[in-house]
Amino acid sequence: MPNNNLIITEAIKIVGLGGQGVVTTAALLARAAFHQGWWAQSMPFFGVERTGTPVEAYVRLARWPIHTHQKIEHPNILLINDYNLYNPKKLGRKLTIVSNSNLNEYHPKPQLLIYDSQQISSFIFNKNLAVCLLGALSACWPLIEEQHWRKAIEEQFINKEIAQKNWQAFIANKELATKLIQLHD
Amino acid sequence: MTRVTNHNAQKLFLKGSEAIARTVAACKPGVIAAYPITPQTGIIEELVRLKTQRQANFSFIQTESEHSALSVTLGAAAMGVPAYTATSSQGLLHMAEVIYNLPGLRLPIVMTCANRSISAPINIWNDHQDAMAVRDAGWIMLWAEDIQEAIEQHWLAFILSQKLRLPVMVNVDGFRLTHASEPVILPSAKLINKLLTNKIKPVLDINQPQTTGWFALPEVYHQQRLDLRKFIATSWPIINQTTNSLNTLWEPIKHTLENTKPAIGYQGTATHYYGPKRPDTLIIALGSIIGELREIVQKHKTANQKIGILKIQIYRPFPENEILFYLNKTHNTIVIDRSPGLGAQPPLFSDIKTSLPSGYNKKISSIIVGLGGDVKLTEINKIIKNYIKNYE
């Protein structure tokens, strides 16, 4: 995969529920992009800070510094970690990935992937974590190289065991999403 | 070209609060006292993490309130120890009494204010109402546009506070900067301490117990307050010299590491101007909203409209001469406040209005934007377009 092939400012939104690691997932994605050599920004927008309430986090990626810090309302890429938050009328401009334990769907344009990330997440972490969606993102949008994802995970999680679990979850989700896309093709 | 080695600076991907905490730790304060409040909490958490991991060496005192936190730093500064605290919103208001004491006693401390709205109703997001409530207390007030600037301003704050013997407040927009993660260039402790002496002449001595800031009769009190007012108003040469020496040391290192040229525009002591030489419209603002304004300028550039942005980095003492220089270059000025100025004009607008010379007859308007956190580029753009249209 060619390096540094980001042409526009990429606006990414990650939504999920409090406690699913939505903010960490956004930071991890931005960190991986930073190691790729891009300018990256991640920021959360909290509702009232309670476990189980909707949480949004935003990521902006570009090859030049980004000055704005406002919310992202119309993202290019949208990751949804709870199916109740999914609205088919509000999709990412080019890519939407949704976690749903009962449904497998793939549409190529604009890309929409609905798949079960929860099974892997429950197996590895014993709970549903948004970080799994990054594996599927990497399968659908392979601009960030695997080594940079790995470096970002190792930096983000200082505990080696936790970093290893996150890496496993990333790879497993990437493989699962790749298979689903290939099945459609 | 300056060769940059790792001991001068590092390029890292950091959350705003972590970047601020690491800079503060590198400035080596002796005492840090704080009480948690959103969105300041991350700064103190990171400082404590650095201390527990033995990467920093300061006395940390978690107090029972913000009033006590600032009082502890006051005591430390009186003993000649560099001290730091951070707060937000209601916490800052709770400190109000001590906030006024520090400049009166001429004690240097550094405080981060993670700007947040104030009650009621309760809101945790960002605007500038908290800092504006204490803007005339005698503090030096700095305002950061992004995380990188917040890092540099904390470094500057420690130097300035000690040179002027005044407290310095670094205002950093809550959530928008404290909770955002971005690539930053972090100066090393060794580099920071090239300009920072950390030597503060103590006013108290445990071996010779005495008091400070004692009772003053009206004549003495009146004169002392006026002297303080005069000192702050005439402190510009020291501020100018300090910012210059910091920029001369830091800018080449930063830009070599980032591989970029210095920021486009004109850098003054207290302001940064971005835009055409003679703008039709000048927008003046504080804090991270400047980022959104930069995008607007870039859009209008293509639409053939000449808009300039004046960012105020040092808000107190108020840089009226620098601002007037730009006001004279334009015909139409828009002042953006993120504080409503209840019962009066918004604070920044009011400051600018009162510093205009008699006979200034160009148009100057006020906009209040983003109270309680919501800054929308499209809405700001719409308001500005309307103003320009009405003016034309």
How would you portray this structure in words?
The complex is a heterodimer of chains A (185) and B (392). Chain A is of the alpha/beta class. Chain A has helices spanning 22-36, 118-125, 133-140, 146-156, 160-184, and strands at 10-17, 39-45, 54-62, 77-80, 95-99, 105-107, 111-115. Chain A has one domain (10-184): Pyruvate-ferredoxin oxidoreductase, PFOR, domain III (Pyruvate-ferredoxin Oxidoreductase, domain 3). In chain A, 36% of the residues lie in helices and 22% in strands. In chain A, strands 2-3-1-4-5-7-6 form a seven-stranded mixed sheet, covered by helices on one side. The longest helix of chain A has 25 residues, at 160-184. The mean pLDDT of chain A is 92. Chain B is α/β, with parallel strands linked by helices and 392 residues long. Chain B has two domains: 9-197 and 213-252, Rossmann fold (3-Layer(aba) Sandwich); 270-391, Rossmann fold (3-Layer(aba) Sandwich). Chain B is 42% helix and 19% strand. A seven-stranded mixed sheet of chain B has the order 3-2-4-5-7-6-13, sandwiched between helices. Chain B has a six-stranded mixed sheet with strand order 9-10-12-11-14-15, with helices on both faces. In chain B, strands 1-8 form a two-stranded antiparallel ribbon. Chain B starts with 8 loop residues before the first strand and ends with a helix. Classes of the chains: A alpha/beta (185), B alpha/beta (392). At the A-B interface, helix 1 and strand 2 of A face strand 8 and helix 11 of B.
- In terms of DSSP E residues, the strand content of chain A is 15-25%
Compute the number of strand runs of chain A.
7
Share of helical residues of chain A: 25-40%
Count of helical stretches of chain A: 5
CATH fourth-tier homologous superfamily of the largest domain in chain B? Thiamin diphosphate (ThDP)-binding fold, Pyr/PP domains
**Cα distance spanning the termini of chain A:** 20 Å
Question: What is the CATH C level class of the largest domain in chain B, in words?
Answer: Alpha Beta
Give the uncertain stretches of chain B in residue-range form: 1-5
How do the helices and strands follow one another from N- to C-terminus of chain A?
EHEEEEEEHHHH
The CATH superfamily of chain A appears as: Pyruvate-ferredoxin oxidoreductase, PFOR, domain III
Largest interface: A-B, 21 and 24 residues
Dominant shape of chain A: globular
| SS class of chain B | alpha/beta
Query: Beta fraction of the residues of chain B?
Result: 15-25%
What is the 3D shape of chain B? globular
Oligomer: heterodimer
Q: Please give the domain count of chain A.
A: 1
Query: Which residues of chain A form runs of ≥5 with pLDDT under 50?
Result: none
Q: Which CATH-level-2 architecture of the largest domain in chain B? A: 3-Layer(aba) Sandwich
Strand order in the largest sheet of chain B: 3-2-4-5-7-6-13
What share of residues of chain B is helical? 40-55%
